[in-house]
Design a protein that fits this description.
By secondary structure, the protein is an alpha/beta fold. The protein contains 14 helices and 19 strands. A 9-stranded mixed beta sheet has the order 9-8-7-6-2-3-1-10-11. An 8-stranded mixed beta sheet has the order 14-13-12-15-16-17-18-19, sandwiched between helices. Helix 6 (about 200-215) packs parallel to helix 8 (about 250-260) and helix 10 crosses helix 11 (about 355-360). The chain is globular and about 85 Å long.
Length: about 500
Amino acid sequence: MTVSAAMIDTVDHELQRHLLRDDGQEDVCLAIYNPSTGRTRITALINAPLLPRHGERAVHGNASFTGDYIVRGAIEAAAAGGGLVLLHSHPGADGWQGMSQPDYTTERSYAHLVQELTGLPMIGMTLAGSGDWSCRQWSADGEPTHGESVRVLSDRLRITWNDRLRHAPATTASQERAVSSWGEATQACLARTRVLVVGAGSVGLDVALRLAATGLVNIAVMDFDSLEIVNLDRMIGATRGDLLLARSKVEVAHRLMMRAATADRPEFALLDMSVCEPEGMAAALDYDVIISCVDKPWARGVLNTLAYADLIPVLDGGIGIDTFDDGTMRSATWRTHTIMPGQPCMVCNGQLDPATAQKDKLGLFEDETYIRGAGRTLTPARQNVAVLSASVSAGLLAQFVSLMVAPGGVGIPGPLRYALAPHWLEHVRVTTLSNCAFEAATATGDCRLPLTGPHPRVHDSQTARNLRQRGLKTRVLRKVISWAERHLPL
């Protein structure tokens, strides 16, 4: 398992104010974390600084903890159901920090005690004077596993990378235009960011292809559906051959992504599963950013939860098309927004009804749902066309660039809505509700509300695909045998 850490900007600011002193000396403190456990990655979600009281630490050029401070912190962490983080600063440094011998000796001496008191591994973190973080997880036998990244969420996503574990891919000639748009450092960060696209339909496929063309190395596409004939007018690049061969949407997406990729060694993952099931949700927790291109409320409810509980920004969007009674178009509306702490969740901004999500989970809601205007009732719809779905993917990609690049120092714009008939682009003014359960569960990690469960449509879809593929193989085999009987001597 790889290791990482994440926190929201208010926690980051409080820790930096304490650790980066005006007098330039090192300092130390503690914090509580909750684990977020994916399939291949464990993330320490830092959620509560525990600053030292008088006499609990000593500052003398370097800085040191007292045993009483460690015990108090471990007891408070255990009472909160979390683990303990030991943090210290390197004021004159920048970038990811390794461990000096005193750092190693100090943290190692407390690792076993902390795990005994909290039941969770101790996390060590270092803050460089540049504001960059590094992290490591201590095992019960007293050895550290160094993390690969630390993420800080504000109106943008700031990531410090461990270059030894997640080295920056070399830029290629195909990426020259991208580098000239935002620079080598930003391209190096983008290329290493793990992005999951949930839903490989018209919007998700377009988003995944453009991320691959931008040079991202680690992109995953998650979808359990098979390609159907109704998808061919919107999944650009899918062929009738894919349909005849009963290919899944993720297989089609992977082939097209590999063709579009500009990275030297792309590592694209096919996740033939649903984020609504435990295995799919665990896979989603391995990623730094999730792009939601789904149209079912249960899946969107799960992603809405992960955005807050597990500090993974979720970029969500969709389209609604209105028609007159005679079938002609009245208008179309599409929305995009980034869901994360500090931003209204999908329930608060009127884009998710928890009751509808529960009906979907129970199998009572099988019609597609597209995003409607704020305050309007979500109604089942199937309208979508390629020339307009491209506008949704463009809006999601613009949100992604704002989150990762922050052009002009400006991060995500908040929810946006575009109405086609009057050609209005609107900043939708919504605020987080005072009783928002999702915002209240920020950085809870593995203690999140349980929303996953068995998804019958996954089994049905995969079974139908397997039957079609076996039937295809049987037909092909019969044709081969028939041809051989006619043309080959027996």
